[in-house]
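Task: sequence design from structure.
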């Protein structure tokens, strides 16, 4: 699951953003085929929908007319069983696969890879550089792109318990 991510100094500089954490309902940068824009993180129905499971999103009516987008980030957070915040990152900019639903961001998640699974069972789909253009421009590649394993990540245990 992805409920919070961070604009690190590298992301802030590359995209002209403020270095900060992004939480549900915050405005965040998305890149589409034709534009970059700030949109709210999460789509409001009865509940706030933050994530779409890659395994089932093609079956869900809510996502039928959504627009593919990417979300630049420097890191993302998950919470371990002890409710401690754990940061996952690389030394490069991460690009999450996302969907725009009525101009609201929903981040696509997948089963956690070996770097994340000891902390959480889900993680955002992180696009490799060669998949960014096809993700934005060729909807026929959706299933293929979403089925790729996640990239190598580093972790940092943060001393910020959830409660």
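Answer:
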């Amino acid at each position: 699951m992805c409920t919070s991510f961070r604009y690190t100094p590298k992301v802030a500089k590359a995209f002209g953003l403020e270095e900060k954490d992004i939480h549900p309902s915050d405005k965040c940068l998305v890149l589409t085929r034709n534009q970059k824009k700030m949109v709210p993180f999460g789509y409001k129905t009865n509940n706030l929908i933050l994530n779409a499971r890659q395994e089932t999103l093609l079956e869900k009516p809510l996502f039928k007319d959504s627009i593919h987008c990417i979300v630049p980030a420097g890191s993302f957070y998950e919470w371990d069983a002890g409710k401690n915040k754990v940061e996952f990152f690389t030394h490069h900019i991460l690009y999450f696969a996302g969907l725009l639903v009525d101009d609201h961001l929903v981040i696509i998640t997948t089963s956690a890879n070996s770097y994340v699974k000891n902390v959480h069972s889900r993680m955002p789909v992180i696009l490799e550089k060669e998949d960014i253009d096809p993700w934005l421009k060729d909807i026929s590649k959706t299933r293929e792109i979403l089925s790729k394993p996640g990239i190598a990540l580093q972790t940092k245990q943060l001393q910020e318990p959830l409660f």
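The radius of gyration is 15 Å.
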